[in-house]
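Example for tutorial group B:
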C-alpha cells in the first residue's frame, strides 16, 4: 500500500498541489488591486462624436500612489480588414476632458494632483506624462493621490472625455467600431456600458450590435436610441470592443471626412465579417474544450507511464533479506557512504554533521566546551584535532572534512562553532570557498565507491523520455488552436506543464541499485526501522554508550537523530547507561543537554551554508545592477489578444497604477 501511494497517488497529489499553488499565487497577485465596478456612459451626437463618462470603483490592498488612464483615439489601425479613407480620422478634444476622484465615497478631487499628457505635465517621478509604451494617437490622464494617503482602500475614478469623428457613414449603413480599453490593472467584477444615440424614432430592424474581447458579454438595444452592454468577471488582459450598425439617418450632421462613399464597404460585408467571427468564436469554444481534454488525457498518459516504466525498468531487485529489523550496523562504511546508497546518490547537510561526529567517535577530533555555557540553546564548542590521519586510515571525504574545518576555516588544529558560523559572513571569497569545499565533499563521498552502486539504464531512460514527445505535440496543438481561434489556453498549458515537469522529475529521480547494493539498502532500511522503533522493544536494552554513539552517527545521516535521542533519554531513565568511553553524547551535568553537540554542529553548518548563499546572492545582484545600467531597456505594447475575435475597432488604452 505504501509503494502504491508513493508511485501512483503521491505524484498526482503533488501535481495537483503544484497547479493549485500557482493559481493561488497568481490570484494573490491579482487581488492587490481590484476593479469592483466599471460603468461608462457613451453619448453620440448627430455628427458622430462620442462623449464618454467612465467610473472605476476600485479597491487597493497595497500602498500605491498614482494612476494613469491611457486613451487611444486612432480610428483605423494597420490591421483593419477593410479599405478606408486616410482622412477618415478621429480626434481627442483636449479642452473637454477632465477627471475626478472619490475616496470612500467622498469627493477629494480638490486635494489630488492631476496631470495631462497634452499639457506637457509631469508625473510624480518628474517624467513627462505619456501613454506606456509611448505612441502616437494616445493621451494619458494622470492622478497623484499622495496628499490623501495614496491609493489604498476604496477609490473611485471618474473620467470625462470627448472624441470626435468616431462614427463612419457608408452607402447603406453607419458604423461605430470602437474599443474602450485593452488592458487594466485587474479584471473587472461587474461592468456595463450604456450607449445613447441620436433619437430619431426608427424601427430596430436595421440596428445591429456586436461585442468583442470579453467573453459572455451581453449586448442589446433597449430602444432606437439606447443600447446596453453588460459583463461580469473579465480578465485584466481583456479588451472592451463594440460595433454598432445603425441607419444613416442617425448621423445627419456628420462631417464629410467621416463619410466613406469611395470604398466598397457596406452592411452585407460587415455583417458577413461579424457572422464569421461568431462562427469562429463558437468553434473556438469547442476547441477550448478539446484543448482541456487533450491536456487532461496527456497528463493521465504521463501519469500512467510513470508507473509503467517504474515497474518495467526501475523496480528494485528482490533480495534475500526480509527481516523487519536489524539491531546492529549492517556494514562497515561511513554514514555519508550509507546516505549515498540509501538516499539515491544524495549527500545532505546531515552527512557533514554525521561525518564530524564519526570522527569525534573515532577520536580524531575532540570536543572542548565551557561548562557554564553548555546548557545554552546554542553553546560555543571548540573542536580540537587530535591527530592527522594518513590516506589509508580514513576515507577521502573524511580527510577533506578535516582539512576544510581545521585548515581552511580554523587554524593551529583548532576551530570553534562561532568561527564556523561566521566564516562566510561579509566575505564573497569565503562564501565561494565554502561552496567549493561543500561540492568537493560530495564528490569525494561519491569517489569512495570503486563501482557505481546504481545502474545507468541509458536505453531504458531514453525510451521513457520519448513519451514526453506526446506532451510536446499536445503543447503545440493547444498553442496553435488558441492562436487560430483566439481562446485563452493558459490554464490548459499550465496543467500540461505541471504533468510534464513531474513526469520528467520522476524519471530523473528513479534509481535502480545494483543487486549487491540493493541487498545493502534493505539492511540499512531494517536498521533505520530499528532506530525509529527501538523504544517499543522490551527485551535486551542497549546500555553501552559507545554503541549508542555509533548508532547516533548513522541516525544523523538518516535524519532521525532527534527522534532517536528522545527514545534514548527514556531508555536511560529506565535502564541506565554505561557512560565509559563516551565522546559526544553527554556534555555537562544535565543529561537533557546530551544532544547539544549534534544540534550545534548541524545548526552551525546550516547557518554557514545560508550565509554563504546569501553573500553569493548579494554579489550576483550587485553585478546584475551594474550590468543593467549598461543596457538599454525596451517596452512591449499593451494591446490585448483577440479573446473570441475582434472587429479591429479604433480606440483602446487602459489603466495603470503604481
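The residue assignment follows.
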Amino acid at each position: 500500500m505504501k509503494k502504491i501511494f508513493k508511485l501512483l497517488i503521491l505524484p498526482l497529489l503533488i501535481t495537483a498541489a503544484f497547479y493549485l499553488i500557482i493559481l493561488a499565487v497568481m490570484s494573490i497577485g491579482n487581488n492587490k488591486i481590484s476593479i469592483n465596478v466599471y460603468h461608462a456612459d457613451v453619448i453620440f451626437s448627430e455628427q458622430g462624436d462620442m462623449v464618454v463618462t467612465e467610473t472605476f470603483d476600485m479597491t487597493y490592498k497595497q500602498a500605491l500612489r498614482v494612476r494613469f488612464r491611457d486613451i487611444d483615439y486612432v480610428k483605423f489601425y494597420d490591421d483593419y480588414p477593410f479599405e478606408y479613407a486616410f482622412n477618415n480620422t478621429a480626434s481627442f478634444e483636449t479642452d473637454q476632458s477632465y477627471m475626478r476622484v472619490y475616496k470612500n465615497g467622498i469627493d477629494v478631487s480638490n486635494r489630488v494632483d492631476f496631470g495631462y499628457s497634452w499639457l506637457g505635465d509631469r508625473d510624480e517621478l518628474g517624467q513627462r506624462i505619456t501613454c506606456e509604451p509611448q505612441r502616437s494617437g494616445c493621451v494619458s490622464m494622470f492622478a497623484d493621490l499622495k496628499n490623501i494617503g495614496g491609493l489604498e482602500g476604496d477609490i473611485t475614478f471618474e473620467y470625462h472625455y470627448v472624441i470626435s469623428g468616431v462614427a463612419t457613414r457608408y452607402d447603406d449603413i453607419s458604423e461605430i467600431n470602437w474599443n474602450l480599453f485593452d488592458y487594466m490593472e485587474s479584471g473587472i467584477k461587474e461592468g456595463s456600458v450604456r450607449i445613447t444615440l441620436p433619437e430619431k424614432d426608427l424601427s430596430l430592424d436595421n440596428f445591429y450590435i456586436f461585442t468583442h474581447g470579453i467573453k459572455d458579454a451581453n449586448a442589446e438595444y433597449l430602444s432606437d436610441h439606447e443600447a446596453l452592454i453588460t459583463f461580469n468577471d473579465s480578465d485584466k488582459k481583456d479588451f472592451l470592443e463594440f460595433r454598432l450598425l445603425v441607419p444613416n439617418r442617425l448621423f445627419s450632421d456628420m462631417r464629410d471626412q467621416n463619410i466613406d462613399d469611395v470604398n466598397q464597404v457596406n452592411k452585407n460585408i460587415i455583417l458577413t465579417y461579424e457572422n464569421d467571427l461568431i462562427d469562429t468564436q463558437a468553434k473556438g469554444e469547442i476547441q477550448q474544450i478539446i484543448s482541456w481534454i487533450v491536456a487532461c488525457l496527456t497528463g493521465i498518459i504521463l501519469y500512467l507511464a510513470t508507473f509503467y516504466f517504474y515497474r518495467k525498468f526501475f523496480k528494485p531487485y528482490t533480495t534475500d533479506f526480509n527481516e523487519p529489523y536489524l539491531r546492529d550496523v549492517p556494514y562497515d562504511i561511513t554514514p555519508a557512504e550509507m546516505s549515498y546508497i540509501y538516499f539515491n546518490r544524495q549527500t545532505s547537510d546531515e552527512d557533514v554533521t554525521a561525518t564530524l561526529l564519526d570522527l569525534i567517535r573515532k577520536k580524531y577530533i575532540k570536543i572542548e566546551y565551557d561548562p557554564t555555557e553548555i546548557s545554552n540553546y546554542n553553546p560555543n564548542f571548540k573542536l580540537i584535532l587530535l591527530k592527522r590521519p594518513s590516506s589509508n586510515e580514513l576515507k577521502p571525504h573524511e580527510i577533506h572534512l578535516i582539512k576544510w574545518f581545521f585548515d581552511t576555516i580554523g587554524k593551529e588544529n583548532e576551530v570553534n562553532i562561532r568561527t564556523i558560523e561566521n566564516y562566510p559572513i561579509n566575505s564573497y571569497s569565503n562564501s565561494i570557498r565554502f561552496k567549493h569545499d561543500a561540492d568537493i565533499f560530495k564528490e569525494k563521498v561519491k569517489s569512495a565507491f570503486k563501482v557505481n552502486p546504481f545502474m545507468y539504464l541509458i536505453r531504458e531512460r531514453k525510451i521513457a523520455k520519448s513519451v514526453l514527445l506526446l506532451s510536446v505535440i499536445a503543447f503545440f496543438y493547444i498553442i496553435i488552436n488558441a492562436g487560430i481561434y483566439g481562446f485563452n489556453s493558459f490554464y490548459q498549458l499550465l496543467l500540461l506543464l505541471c504533468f510534464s515537469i513531474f513526469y520528467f522529475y520522476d524519471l530523473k529521480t528513479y534509481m535502480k541499485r545494483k543487486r549487491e547494493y540493493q541487498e545493502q539498502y534493505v539492511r540499512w532500511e531494517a536498521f533505520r526501522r530499528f532506530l525509529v522503533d527501538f523504544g517499543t522493544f522490551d527485551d535486551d536494552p542497549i546500555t553501552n554508550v559507545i554503541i549508542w554513539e555509533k548508532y547516533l552517527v548513522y541516525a544523523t545521516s538518516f535524519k532521525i537523530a532527534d527522534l532517536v535521542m528522545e527514545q534514548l533519554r527514556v531508555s536511560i531513565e529506565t535502564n541506565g547507561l554505561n557512560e565509559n568511553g563516551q565522546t559526544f553524547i553527554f556534555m555537562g551535568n544535565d543529561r537533557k543537554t546530551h544532544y547539544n553537540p549534534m544540534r550545534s554542529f548541524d545548526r552551525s553548518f546550516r547557518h554557514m551554508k545560508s550565509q554563504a548563499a546569501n553573500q553569493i546572492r548579494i554579489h550576483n545582484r550587485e553585478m546584475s545592477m551594474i550590468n543593467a545600467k549598461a543596457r538599454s531597456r525596451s517596452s512591449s505594447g499593451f494591446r490585448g489578444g483577440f479573446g473570441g475575435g475582434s472587429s479591429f475597432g479604433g480606440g483602446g488604452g487602459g489603466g495603470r497604477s503604481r
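Confidence is low (pLDDT under 50) at residues 588-595, 630-644. Compare this with the pattern of hydrophobic and polar residues in the output above.
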